[in-house]
Amino acid sequence: MIMRIFQVVTRPGKEAEFSRFFHETAIPLMKSTDGCLTVLPGAARPESPREFSFVMVWRELEALKAFVGEDYRSAHVDPAEAEIVESRTIHHYDLVET
């Protein structure tokens, strides 16, 4: 299984707009995507009001690639978020079973 950590920093003043997109579009989309087994969304906190994140667990690399394409290391950007996000980071790990 692949753990994907996706973090965004919104453009200044776009926090509320991104929060709506995050809750109304991004979270439901990820929860309904085939191969995405776990979705742990992280909303902004007072000390970092422009930062949001997702921790996702994918069944396998092929399922992740089916969603984002062969270049899975690049951000999959929904057109609705393109103008409200300043930066994105993505990291992948092999999930450690405990």
Automatic annotation (TrEMBL):
Transmembrane segments: none annotated. It comes from the Bacteria. It is an enzyme of class 1 (oxidoreductase). Pfam families: ABM. Gene3D superfamilies: 3.30.70.100. Residues 1-76 form the ABM domain. GO terms for molecular function: monooxygenase activity. Its EC number is 1.14.-.-. This is Antibiotic biosynthesis monooxygenase family protein.
